[in-house]
């Protein structure tokens, strides 16, 4: 019996080097891993312990990689940090999480462990201490450590999503946790604010605002808590995009009679014009190696996605089906560009492979899906659907909304992993 | 020393009488009695005075009326200029024939009023993506500006702004509303 289980594991989870890869992130549609979250040992408020378990469960569900087993079938039901692997093997739990929570008036101590029940080993063990309001953060941190142990890379549990919040005639920049928790405003400009774009590794955002009359680029420094005007070179200063090293910005300006995409330094000073024409040139997005940008232009008669090689200056069209393709977003690994394309009267999210040029449709509902933004691990896309923020899980193609707010929510921008 | 004192005394003597004469001059002016005879003239010849008055009044009022009329017609013309939008085809920014006619009228009026400066707002309908529409709105505003410049209007008198799909005139989601919203709006900023 043991031999059979071991054989099955080998079949599902291939070995890479000497370590066992539990989750092969490049193989979609793989079997979900059965995992048990054993009741936590509690000293103090039981409600907080249940909350911690619930946050972990939500995190694991978000990834789509796990089958979370019902506590009703657990053979080991008393909260303890001791583990009897056989009791978990018998109910088919390959992974088990154990936890211990001590709640003092000022601080909480959280200890969490991840076990491989089939092999009888501990994969992750962490102890956290912090204020009560840091509980979510502690659990998210452990969940990321879990994912790193299982797949070789942390997930998105320490990321945020900035977006445009629309009410009446006003649009402001808001931010929320990756799971829709704690949405709150970043700007109170009481005017039109658009196109938030996260810095590649710092707590900074670029966005467009009409604060001084015409659309201009602002820099929001979340650490300092201040916003300042950064780019105001023409009547039109829109769609900023930070280079992967954070030292340069690609931005659309209209100078003279032409509209083009310009390169500036991180202070907004123009270095040079990258592309320009009599028509539209907008929405630049950088390749992760910083050698190319993708952008939208109507140079072929309709809005289409093009790439510009910054070394050779060669321009190549990459969207070929449909008459209206916009909002390109280059994937963090560089292998895909996601975009919004008009099909049968509605905008759908597509990805085009940078290797083969193959185009794949990801959304299908007869409604508008716009502004795709990649998660830093490349496993998810945030986008707006009928003015609500949705998450698309690329491993199984499923999608779900993350916010339940009145008003409209648009143009999501997924943050890097924040420390 | 003695000389200096002498000069001082002499100058005081010279200055003092001047001061005195000024005071003397002021006294007759303060007497108001000399105005009375003018009031006495008014009552007798009423008809003639009235006729004269009317002529004087009409002469004074005529230029005032003209000014008001000019201001009102200018205001009307300005309102007409601002209220007449030009429209575009979906996803396009070329000037259509109907828009060209309107722009020609606007150019003529701008030539007649060289003091007028204007802002052209480019707008889009809600279809299409927001970022693309921001860029498209700028092209639409720029198309109208170029057209007017080609008709001889100084480009310095025209500035442009794009509102993309942010400010629709008709918020409905139908072809009729979209056609209205794909527009350039003209605002007189200075005259």
Describe the structure.
- The complex is a heterodimer of chains A (419) and B (191).
- Chain A is mainly β.
- Chain A is 12% helix and 46% strand.
- Chain A folds into two domains: 2-151, Rossmann fold; 160-414, Neuraminidase (6 Propeller).
- In chain A, strands 3, 4, 5, 6, 7 and 8 form a six-stranded mixed sheet that branches. Chain A has a four-stranded antiparallel sheet with strand order 11-10-9-32, with no helix packed on it.
- In chain A, a hairpin with a 2-residue loop joins strand 1 and strand 2.
- The longest helix of chain A is centred in the first third of the chain and has 18 residues, at 46-63.
- The relative contact order of chain A is 0.09.
- By secondary structure, chain B is α+β, with helices and mostly antiparallel strands.
- Chain B has two domains: 33-83; 86-190, OmpA-like domain (60s Ribosomal Protein L30, Chain: A, 2-Layer Sandwich), CATH 3.30.1330.
- A four-stranded mixed sheet of chain B has the order 1-4-2-3.
- The longest helix of chain B has 38 residues, at 46-83.
- The interface between A and B is medium-sized, with 35 and 20 residues.
Approximately how much beta-strand content do the residues of chain A carry? over 45%
Report the span from N to C terminus of chain B.
71 Å
The geometry of chain B reads as: elongated
Topology of chain B as a string of helices (H) and strands (E): HHHEHEHEHE
The CATH H-level homologous superfamily of the largest domain in chain A: TolB, C-terminal domain
CATH domain class of the largest domain in chain A: Mainly Beta
Number of domains of chain A: 2
Number of strands of chain B: 4
Structural class of chain A: mainly beta
CATH architecture of the largest domain in chain A: 6 Propeller
Task: Briefly say what this structure is.
The complex is a heterodimer of chains A (419) and B (191). By secondary structure, chain A is mainly beta.
